[in-house]
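Continuing the series of single-chain predictions for the mutant panel. This is the parent chain; the variants come on the following pages.
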Amino acid sequence: MIDVLVAGGGPAGLAAAVHARLAGLTAVVVEPRTAPVDKACGEGVMPGGVASLRALGVEPAGRELRGIRYVDGVRRAEAPFRDRPGLGVRRTTLHRALHERALGLGVRIVPGKVGEVRQTRDSVTAAGITARWLIAADGLHSPVRRRLGLELPGGPRGRYGLRRHYRLAPWTDFVEVHWSGQGEAYVTPVADGLVGVAVLSRVRRGYDEHLDGFPAL
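Parent structure:
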């Protein structure tokens, strides 16, 4: 029997597995996708997140961020980070760095999905593996959490996320959050010659249509 079974091999699941190994526990991650996994993401890590990654021995390549700026037409407000910089980093770069760190520490990553979960007083069995603890790191709308009856009333509402990268020099070292009547656009420098623009909205439409709602961009 292992100590920790992690359902989901995204950044949260891999970080949990690395934490377990650094604490001297055995850990197995169950994940159906091949690393690195990409998805629509703002790609900005706050200073506390950068410090947490460093404590795990993970320092992915990216671009330092000095703060966050909110933009709504001609109105804007910004807040520089006080003590330490944040980090703009491609999600694939972050995932790859966590994946390599987990493997280097002896975390076993197996292909598959956690379906049925069976529990006893001192163990849990899922995906054919028995462990002392199970961590459900399988996303915002976690199927594992739902099957175990742990959903909170009025759980998270869904939004559509779309993202593109543009090969141009960043014009700022802040994350910029632009607002429109339909959603937000997150602009994050992720390398010296690369800027990510992620759009989040409850309205389902194409990326270019969403971008039309942000004239400054």
